[in-house]
Amino acid sequence: AHGRSRKRGCTRCIDACPAEAIVSLGEKVQVNPYLCQGGGTCATSCPSGAMTYAYPAPGDLLYAVQRLLRDYRDAGGTSPTLLFHDEASAAAVADDFTAVMPERVLPVAIEEIGSVGMDTWLASLAYGAETVVLLTCDATPPQVIETLQEQLAIAQAILAGMGYPEGRLHLVNGDQPASALQALAALPSGQSRQSATFAAPPADKRGTLRLALDHLQSHAPAPKRVTPLPAGAPFGEVRVDAGACTLCMSCVSACPTHALQDGRGLPQLNFREWNCVQCGLCERTCPEDAITLAPRLLQDAEARERPRILHEEQPVCCIACGKPFATRAMLD
């Protein structure tokens, strides 16, 4: 989704990398192994799952989280909070928090705090976590914190659109023990809800997100039909100005996820919303400037998956043989 035919699309991984280790090679990106510090924000911000973090793999991490939450519930625990922390903030967990933080807070050690993203947070909530807390520290690069805040804003908007109360996702600085403990003590607790049993598909970020969203949606307190999302969200629709579109299909050939599709012989432009990662290639490729992007989440899972017609015209037929060969807009 980064580039196609000299048009620039998604640059989220490049923008998120605090080490400037990712560069554009036209239609692809390249990670410089001599600059990469393994921060993982590229995988967190990547909308398609093209960037992944290998230690631990997302599927392995979610399997461990699922087992942890299940064992906690089997032992009689309620309203669990997952506290993700990395090596930089491990000292704060061991020295400042262990003896005084609420017993329902379950620490989860990971390699880098920037490596867990929306798929992990929402899947953790689906598995039964009441809240998810990301523990940073003063040594966490500002660009990592900024990326996490952007992703948190998107995830919180999704949860709000389903009717879940505020406070399900938090970012806390472990080097400020007083405020961090106050935040942990104030975390909401609610009634237990049915936990998801799905296994996260390996190396499939969109698949994990689909399963988590479907479960959360099925148990949502007050879901809306459509949830507007902040700019940069990996979900949304493509809007087409019917008066400007000539059905040239340039956008279809540019779309890297097959969200935009032709009419298979008919003069139609079809759209499958779940496939769209809002990379912007269609918008930049359209010669008529007829396309705009609208970040949002369509809560109806079937409607997200079902193709719909964005624009269609009657074909113009040859006056001699009667064979359809173009649209009126194209001829004009």
Calculate Rg over CA atoms. 23 Å
Number of beta-strand segments: 16
Main sheet properties: 4 strands, parallel
Q: How much β-strand is present in the residues?
A: 15-25%
Give the fraction of residues assigned to helices. 25-40%
Give the integer mean of the pLDDT values.
91
Described by the principal axes of the CA atoms, the overall outline is elongated
Distance between the termini: 32 Å
Structural category: alpha+beta
Low-confidence stretches: none
Helical segment count: 12
Numbering strands along the chain, what is their spatial order in the largest sheet? 6-5-7-8
Pattern of helices and strands: EEHEEHHEHEHEHEHHEEHEEHEHEEEH
Helix-strand layout with pairing:
Layout: E1 3-4, E2 7-8, H1 12-16, E3 22-24, E4 29-31, H2 41-45, H3 58-74, E5 81-85, H4 87-97, E6 105-109, H5 118-126, E7 131-136, H6 142-162, E8 169-173, H7 177-185, H8 205-218, E9 226-228, E10 236-240, H9 250-254, E11 260-263, E12 266-271, H10 281-285, E13 291-298, H11 301-305, E14 308-312, E15 315-317, E16 324-327, H12 328-331
Parallel strand pairs: 5-6, 5-7, 7-8
Antiparallel strand pairs: 1-2, 3-4, 9-13, 10-13, 11-12, 12-14, 15-16
Helix pairs in contact: 5-8
Describe this structure in words.
This protein is an alpha+beta fold. The strands form six sheets. It has a four-stranded parallel β-sheet, with helices on both faces. A three-stranded antiparallel β-sheet has the order 9-13-10. A three-stranded antiparallel β-sheet has the order 11-12-14. The chain contains twelve helices and 16 strands. Helix 5 packs parallel to helix 8 (205-218).
